[in-house]
Write a structure and sequence with these properties.
Layout (H helix, E strand, L loop, with lengths): L1 H16 L5 E4 L2 E5 L4 E7 L6 E3 L3 E2 L2 E6 L10 E3 L6 E2 L12 E3 L6 E2 L12 E3 L5 E2 L12 E3 L6 E2 L12 E3 L6 E2 L13 E2 L6 E2 L13 E2 L5 E3 L12 E3 L4 E4 L6 E2 L6 E2 L3 E4 L4 H9 L3 E3 L4 E3 L13 H11 L8 H7 L9 H11 L4
């Protein structure tokens, strides 16, 4: 027991003698000495400043991170030096008069809600930023121009959600992930070109982007999330390359407001055996199969009469039970709805559901 008490007292003594981080002040900037020759700006006490130039050094300490400018509504311009590697969470949250920000070349991370609600901000160049946090530019209603720089790998959830004025976006050649709802409701976004590095497009990432007319995908393996391009009403067709490995539910569908009914007016151009065919089968979307030079408007129409009926379901059951041994390539293409290479009861069940309006 005495040894345990002695150990506890020794630990308490160490804790008590540790130096505490003290908030200091320099020309209105509140900062903390990180103890390694660097400091972090954690606040700003000048409530009337319009142009703010973040210093690269304070009292000999290199400034490496900034936060604490939340709701400073006098600020109109901010310059961030190259020494800063991180713009922290909510750093400039709801700075309602901020119209211009110069992001330094050293900034690698922009935190969650960093510029959320900066309603006067019109353009942004992320330069060497690698990670853009969730809601980073959410609700920047006048933002028009976005250059993702040369190093960006991740765009967070709802990062640009409802920024309705964006009409220019240049993705970085390093981009790997676009988060859920990242650009949802950006109504002026033009045609998009995605880099070869892109690996995933999140759920509803570009839903309700009603000005998009064309999509160009890169050459790397890519997964497209559910509803990713839902209600992109000017998008009439899209070519899905073979490197796209998965397309989520109703990724290219149209749905009326508050409706649960989806329709598919976007024609999917793709190759046999690809994720594009799989998507079209699962979502009953029109598909143009490149090798066959043929458009299919309704999977399940085994008898080829132009409609999916209970007769198709009965025929699928007979084929599954090998009662009808003659199976043409065309019948298999139209009727193998679970894409397992053969007719079975599951195919017949799906066709029956389509014939009766259940799916």
């Amino acid at each position: 027991m005495k040894k345990i008490i002695s150990l506890i007292l020794a630990l308490l003594l160490i804790i008590i003698t540790l130096p505490l981080a003290t908030a200091l002040n320099y020309n209105g900037f509140v900062y903390v000495d990180n103890g390694d020759g660097t400091c972090s700006i954690t606040g700003y006490n000048d409530f009337y400043a319009e142009d703010v130039v973040i210093p690269s050094k304070i009292d000999g300490l290199t400034v490496i991170s900034i936060t604490g400018f939340r709701q400073k509504n006098s600020i109109r311009y901010v310059s961030i030096p190259s020494t800063v590697t991180e713009i922290g969470d909510m750093a400039f949250y709801s700075c309602k008069k901020l119209y211009s920000v110069a992001i330094g070349t050293g900034v690698k991370t922009i935190g969650e809600k960093a510029f959320n609600g900066c309603v006067e901000l019109t353009s942004v160049n992320l330069r060497n930023t690698e990670h853009l946090g969730d809601y980073a530019f959410y609700g920047c209603s006048k933002l028009e121009w976005v250059d993702c720089g040369t190093a960006l790998k991740h765009i967070g959830t709802r990062a640009f959600w409802s920024d309705k004025m964006i009409n220019y976006i240049k993705f970085a050649p390093t981009l790997e992930t676009i988060g859920d709802y990242a650009f949802s409701n950006c109504e002026l976004l033009p045609s998009l070109v995605f880099p070869d590095s892109l690996k995933s497009i999140g759920t509803s990432a570009f839903s309700n982007c009603i000005a998009i007319e064309a999509l160009t995908f890169g050459t790397g393996e890519l997964e497209i999330g559910a509803y990713a391009f839902e209600n992109c009403i000017l998008l009439t067709e899209v070519t899905i390359p073979e490197n796209v490995t998965y397309i989520g539910r109703n990724a290219f569908a149209f749905r009326e407001t508050d409706s649960t009914v989806f329709t598919h007016t976007v024609k999917i151009n793709c190759h046999l055996g690809s994720a594009g065919v799989d998507y079209s089968v699962r979502n009953n979307a029109p598909v143009y199969i490149i090798e066959l030079d043929r458009t299919i408007n309704s999977f399940g129409d085994i008898d080829g009469d132009g409609d999916v009926t209970t007769l198709d379901a009965k025929k699928a059951l007979r084929l599954a039970a090998k009662m009808n041994k003659k199976v043409t390539d065309d019948m298999l293409l139209l009727g193998d709805l679970n894409q397992n290479g053969r007719f079975d009861v599951e195919d017949a069940n799906i066709i029956l559901q389509r014939a009766t309006g259940i799916v």
